[in-house]
Amino acid sequence: MRILVTGGAGFLGSHLCKRLLREGHEVVCVDNLFTGRKANIAELLNDPNFEFMRHDVVDEFKVEVDQIYNLACPASPIHYQYNPIKTTKTSVVGAINCLGMAKRVNARILQASTSEVYGDPDVHPQPEAYRGNVNTLGPRACYDEGKRCAETLFFDYYRQNQVDIRVVRIFNTYGPQMLPDDGRVVSNFIVQALREEPLTLYGDGSQTRSFCYVDDLIEGMVLAMNQDEAVGPINIGNPDEFTIKELAEKVLALTESPSEMIFKPLPEDDPMQRQPDISLAKEKLGWEPKVKLQEGLERTIPYFEHLLEETAEETAKV
Ligand code: NAD
Ligand code: UDP
Asked: What kind of fold does domain 2-171+213-238+276-289 have according to CATH?
């Protein structure tokens, strides 16, 4: 198949492009390189089945493809809050452009939605039927509401135009290819530990997240795209839940770092708990994550070690 991946030069997108190429597909990667990097796809640029288009999904574009994975959108709070109006446009106008294209070329289209549609949840763990608790006015709303509106658009194109949609709600995912300055908690803690700087815990570190290793996530996303049982939304994530302090302790132990923990104010509207109910993914996709947090961190730490060594060598040359 010929497959479009928007946001294909980002963290998840670059893993997805590699996976699809390995399966023998042709891949068109569309990315404006806001939070993505050419380095993430450098090894693919000479592959005749891979094509990179630097383009912003807010502006219309045309590609003839069989499937579309719509991942374009900054995902880290510091990045999506940098230009919140642009973030909403990327989710909403980007979805309209991709759905219009799916309609024209008759392609199946999958939306990378998010656990953020549940906001700061008062139901725990979160099943797909839970409608969420999002503050429409807060600093996270550009992302949360943009993604909620994108889901609405997907289901309206499905009902009104019979577009062949799939929607997955992704929970916190980590792994190699994340940017060292991405701002999300796993990359921040690993980089701080390796640099022997203090680990910055926001609040008292008692808030929870459930961390999914990237390979498991990509497997779930590809399975969701290629089945006819459920259009979604389907939660994809790892249900093993940890406090942020427990994560910090694990990272310090695995890196054998002498860093201390320091506590900073909790950002506004930061969800206090998050854990996916993955019953639907198990039932409809036969999917569940395989990689435990300890093992995922052991695979991720060497990537950051290598990246920091490279940066240090480049700085030394200058
Ligand atoms: P990322 O920031 O690494 O990747 C996003 C990519 O989209 C980047 O390459 C960026 O340059 C590109 N992009 C942003 N705005 C664009 C625009 N207007 N036009 C074209 N390209 C644009 O983040 P990620 O973690 O890889 O997330 C990918 C998708 O998965 C996002 O849609 C995100 O909301 C969703 N998601 C990720 C997680 C996670 O934990 N990683 C959790 C929930 C949802
Ligand atoms: N967090 C933290 N220190 C950091 C970065 C994040 O304590 O250096 C916390 C953050 O406040 C949140 C959790 O870790 O409670 C997950 O943050 P992230 O930005 O990774 O994802 P999200 O909040 O979108 O789930």
From this structure: Rossmann fold (3.40.50)
